[in-house]
Every structure is written in structure tokens, then in C-alpha cells.
Specification:
17 helices; alpha/beta; binds flavin mononucleotide; TIM Barrel; Alpha-Beta Plaits; two-stranded antiparallel sheet; 408 residues; eight-stranded parallel β-sheet; binds iron/sulfur cluster
């Protein structure tokens, strides 16, 4: 079996169950601990009643492992089980006593609402830092991810300055590693990461959740309240870009990125883009521990069957693709284009549906006698190959691209 140990975070495996209802209060943390993730982030307190959680119509999709766009829970009586810093510290002590010692316990500091409200929030955050350090947390996490923080950036707060100043401030008051959780909404994530690094962050967790307005056309019967904090499968490629860009600029800070991870494939993409760990959020809340455990197991199985013996070999492996030399990329394009250009329609397979003709913008194909036929004017763009329903237009795309890559 692959060795999942992550040395950058000293974690048994790369899965961080992120701050969410699944980590709200000691009972939920201990329940979540049963699937043995590498780390659990205790949800920051101060949510009060409501918890900011609403359910979309698609969470059953997550449970079934299908792509989805959102997941929040509803509950008019949701109440934060941690009401004060004293209760928070007691929760940390209890979790540390009862939880598997191999799971790292990160305590989330503050709440973005504190910043919005103003007042003496910095003093509060420092007190939380000092008390939670004493209570025995393994690391502290700063909460700069929620869309609310990002969207205020041009109103009252400079986001980058906030990240830098708060990180430096918290670092002065703890001996624990400080994890800085960042948004990719409304800011340049690379700049935000640089600010966290400059201020001494021990890890960064870029996360993709946006303010969004989601509804269907039958809107009167859907959302109890459409609102903020939307994620979904579409988030993963965006977060992968942030990870890959950061690594490509030589920034090697330990990273635990997340966003829209509902399948083991997405977890692997986050890791192979260069993040050392991966956050699990909605999948745990809406898919439950069963779905999260399945994802963790399948990630490991995939590593075994694809020759990745450990995290070192896996992490950042896809940067080879992100940073592919121009000549290799050009060769791959040329090889594939040429294959598209010269490959003729298999007349036995063609059913004359005309889809290929429909997507050809170069007069490169015609339908004659009920069958398609490629013409000399074909430029090899490949559109028709994507739409052919029968395989009458077919090339071994994977083989062609891999051969061009391997040759280099
Ligand atoms: C219902 C719900 C509540 C959340 N509440 C918080 C929170 O209080 N603090 C926080 O830092 N992140 C919060 N998050 C974000 C998660 O910690 C995590 O970063 C995010 O869910 C990852 O994206 P994903 O849900 O698409 O996997 C919440 C996420 C969900 C689904
Ligand atoms: S799309 Fe495929 S099956 Fe349809 S006409 Fe073109 S080649 Fe034939
Ligand atoms: S490869 Fe492009 S140009 Fe050639 S026939 Fe197909 S759609 Fe037309």
C-alpha cells in the first residue's frame, strides 16, 4: 500500500477535514475522527444561531458521487455548541484526550464576521491564540477564506494587508504552526499567498468558495435561501491553477488546498497540481463520513495501481504538464492535428448523422450518399472527432500525446 505520510505537515495522510458543520463542536469532531483523516480543523466559534448553512437540491448527488455545484445544510435551530473561548479550550482538551493521537487537531481562530463588525477583534484573536495554544491544539488556522472577507476588499479592507498583518500578529503569540486559509475570490491568490508567506505562515490553504446566486427556473419551489459560500466541482480546476501557479513561481510553502473535491480523482488533481494536502469540506458534510472514507480509500488504491509509492512521488507530478516546455507542447499539438487531418471516416461505422458536418467550420467534410467524407481542406482541428457518436471518426488521442511526451 502507498505510504500516505505527509512530512510537510507531519500527517498520517493528506486529508484535512475542513472547518464546517462536520467539525463544529467536540462531538462532531470525534465523530469525524472515526474515518482517520490526517487532520481535522475545529470550526471557528462565533457563528451563533444558524451556522450559515443551507441545503441545495444537489447534495444527494454528492452522496452518490455525482458532480454537483453546492451543498449546505439547513436547520433553523442550528446552534454553535461552542459559545465562549473557555468552552472552545475545553473542547480542544477533550478532543485531544479522546481522539486518535495520530490525527492532527487544528483550531480555527476568529471569524470573518469579527472583522466586519469592527471593534476589538484583534485583541480577541490574540487571546484565542494564546488560550488555544495552551489548551493543546496542534496548529492554528486563520480564516481568510469565506467570501465575505474577499468581497469587502474594495469597501473597507485591503485583503492582502489583512492577511499579512493578522498572520504576523498571530505568529507573535503562539509557538504552534499557523495555517492561513485563503480565498481565491475577488483577489489575486498568488499575491495573497505571498503575503501569508512573508508574514511567516507555516501553511496556506487556498480554497474556492464564492458568493453566488443559484436558483433554477422554478425558483419559487427551490432554495430556502439562495446565498453565499458556493463551491462545487467547477472549483477544482480553478484551485489547481492557483496551486500550480504558486509552485511554478518557486513558492514551496506547505499547502492544503481545497474546493469542490467530491471524488478521489479531484483529490488527486489537487495533490498532483502541487498541494501537499487536500481539504475535504462539502463531501463530509453532505456526503457523510462514508463518502469521505470511500474517497480516501480510492485515492490510495489509485496511487497503488498507478505506481505512486508515496506522497513525494505524487505531489506536484502534474506540474510537468503545467510547465511543459513550449517545444513539447507544440510537438503534441502538431502530432494530434496531423492525425486528425489525415484520418479518414470509417465508412462502415458512419451512420450519416451529419454531426461532423455541423461542427466543421473549415469545409473539411461533406456528407455524400448518406456517409461523411473528409476533404483536402480539412485543417485537423478535431471538432468532428469529438462529436462522432459511432467512432467512425477516431484517433488514438492518448497514445499520440503520450508518445510525443515520452519522446522528449
Ligand atoms: C456548510 C459549510 C460550512 C462552512 N463553514 C466554514 C467556516 O465556518 N469556516 C471556514 O473557514 N470554512 C468553512 N467552510 C469551508 C470549508 O472549510 C472548506 O474550505 C470548503 O468547504 C472546501 O470546499 P468544498 O466544500 O467545495 O470541498 C464551510 C463549508 C461548508 C460546506
Ligand atoms: S458524425 Fe460520425 S457517424 Fe455522424 S456523419 Fe460524421 S462520421 Fe458519420
Ligand atoms: S478535423 Fe476540423 S477541419 Fe477537419 S473535417 Fe473535422 S471539423 Fe472539419
Amino acid at each position: 500500500m502507498a505510504d500516505l505520510y505527509v512530512k510537510e505537515f507531519d500527517m498520517k495522510n493528506p486529508f484535512v477535514v475542513a472547518s464546517s458543520p462536520a467539525t463544529q463542536g467536540p462531538n462532531n469532531v470525534l465523530k469525524t475522527a472515526s474515518i482517520k483523516p490526517g487532520a481535522i480543523v475545529v470550526r471557528n466559534f462565533g457563528h451563533g444561531k444558524g451556522g450559515g448553512s443551507y441545503i441545495g437540491p444537489n447534495s444527494s448527488d454528492i452522496f452518490m458521487g455525482r458532480p454537483t455545484v453546492q451543498s449546505h445544510a439547513i436547520g433553523t435551530g442550528i446552534k454553535d455548541p461552542i459559545g465562549s473561548l473557555e468552552e472552545y479550550c475545553e473542547a480542544i482538551r477533550r478532543i485531544k484526550r479522546e481522539m486518535d493521537p495520530d490525527i492532527r487537531l487544528w483550531a480555527s481562530i476568529g471569524h470573518y464576521g469579527d472583522i466586519v463588525k469592527g471593534g476589538e477583534w484583534e485583541k480577541d484573536w490574540i487571546r484565542q491564540t494564546e488560550e488555544l495554544t495552551r489548551a493543546g491544539a496542534d496548529a492554528l488556522e486563520l480564516h481568510f477564506n469565506t467570501p465575505g472577507v474577499a468581497v469587502m476588499k474594495d469597501r473597507t479592507i485591503n485583503y492582502y494587508e489583512l492577511v499579512n498583518r493578522c498572520t504576523a500578529m498571530i505568529k507573535q503569540h503562539t509557538t504552534l504552526p499557523v495555517m492561513v486559509k485563503l480565498t481565491v475570490e475577488g483577489c489575486d491568490p498568488l499575491t495573497a499567498i505571498r503575503q501569508a508567506v512573508a508574514a511567516g505562515a507555516d501553511g496556506v490553504g487556498p480554497t474556492a468558495r464564492w458568493k453566488a446566486f443559484s436558483f433554477d427556473l422554478d425558483w419559487k419551489r427551490t432554495e430556502p435561501r439562495p446565498g453565499s459560500g458556493y463551491g462545487g466541482t467547477q472549483a477544482t480546476p480553478i484551485i489547481c491553477y492557483t496551486i500550480a501557479e504558486t509552485r511554478s513561481k518557486g513558492i514551496n510553502i506547505p499547502m492544503y488546498a481545497g474546493g469542490g473535491v467530491f471524488s478521489y480523482e479531484q483529490a488527486l488533481q489537487i495533490l498532483m497540481a502541487g498541494s501537499n494536502c487536500v481539504q475535504l469540506g462539502s463531501i463530509v458534510c453532505s456526503g457523510g463520513l462514508g463518502a469521505a472514507e470511500r474517497l480516501m480509500r480510492r485515492t490510495e488504491e489509485w496511487m497503488d495501481s498507478h505506481g505512486y509509492p508515496d506522497m513525494q512521488s505524487l505531489t506536484g507530478d502534474a506540474l510537468k504538464l503545467f510547465n511543459m516546455p513550449k517545444e513539447v507542447a507544440a510537438r503534441r499539438t502538431a502530432r494530434l492535428g496531423e492525425a486528425y487531418r489525415v484520418t479518414q471516416v470509417d465508412r462502415n461505422e458512419c451512420i450519416g448523422c451529419g454531426r461532423c458536418y455541423d461542427v466543421c467550420w473549415n469545409e473539411g467534410i461533406e456528407i455524400a450518399d448518406g456517409k461523411a467524407r473528409k476533404l483536402d481542406s480539412c485543417i485537423g482541428c478535431g471538432y468532428c472527432f469529438q462529436v462522432c457518436p459511432t467512432g467512425a471518426l477516431h484517433v488514438d488521442k492518448g497514445g499520440i500525446l503520450a508518445a510525443a511526451f515520452d519522446e522528449e
